[in-house]
Design goal:
about 60 residues, three-stranded antiparallel beta sheet
């Protein structure tokens, strides 16, 4: 059975400038980030920052030889 690798989630942030700041910080720390919007009702949206981090260690090929 596969085990989950890394962390994935959503941050609800209403202010666009705050979303950009948070996404920038996450990206600089190795996370994948993506903007997401979801309809709240007929005319308004809720805005989120989707984030994910995976095990990104590259195996040492010299040690394997």
């Amino acid at each position: 059975m596969c085990e989950p690798v890394g962390v994935h989630g959503y941050l609800k942030i209403g202010n666009e400038a705050d979303r950009v700041t948070v996404a920038s910080i996450l990206y600089k720390n190795g996370y994948s980030v993506s903007p997401v919007r979801r309809k709240k009702n007929g005319k308004t949206y809720e805005y989120y920052v989707e984030f994910a981090i995976r095990d990104t260690d590259i195996p040492d090929t010299e040690a394997a030889e």
